[in-house]
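Hi X.,

You mentioned you wanted examples for the new student's onboarding notes, showing what a folding record looks like when two proteins sit in one file. Here is a clean example. The first protein comes first, with its sequence line followed by its structure tokens.
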Amino acid sequence: MNQDVVGAGDGRGAEPVPVEKLGYEQARDELVETVKLLEMGQMGLDDSLALWERGEALARRCEEHLAGAKAKVEAALSRGAEGAGGEDDDRD
């Protein structure tokens, strides 16, 4: 990579954390930074493609976290509705 390019790094930095090990906030924050770097358009094709692929994986990871959270909320609401169903009938 060109050393004069913003966000280029020197290639000797720490390896990125595997996407599957990232929490939601970590994946989201890295995705935001990835989009910013891609929008600058200062990288070569190969570097841009590698960053795009990482961004796609980050987006999928965020979607997985959100789907899991949605399922937990729906399960909690379902349990709450089942428990409250009998109480409403006795209130008149």
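Then the second protein repeats the pattern, sequence line and then tokens:
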Amino acid sequence: MKYLVTGHQVIPGAGHTDQVNYLRAAKAWVKRHKEAGQLEAVYSFTDGGGVFIMNVSSHEELMKLLLTFPLSPLTQWSVRPMIDFVESADIIINTLKNFA
């Protein structure tokens, strides 16, 4: 299952040293989960926060994974499930063709 996950830090780190440590840990987390195939894409927004495209087997796995992100206790998440465009289009076409 694929998810578009956006997040932004809503609680600041205690100071610059803490923020650097959080970001170093976050970089290692991203690398590890990209290598495992759970993260397909990771980007930061220029004004703070960022976006993941995640590929996991369930909502529960997604929740567990997000809770392990080093900045998670400081982050507000928004999660949107995604479906392949062609599959989505076919579902809509097949549903609506009887009404067209």
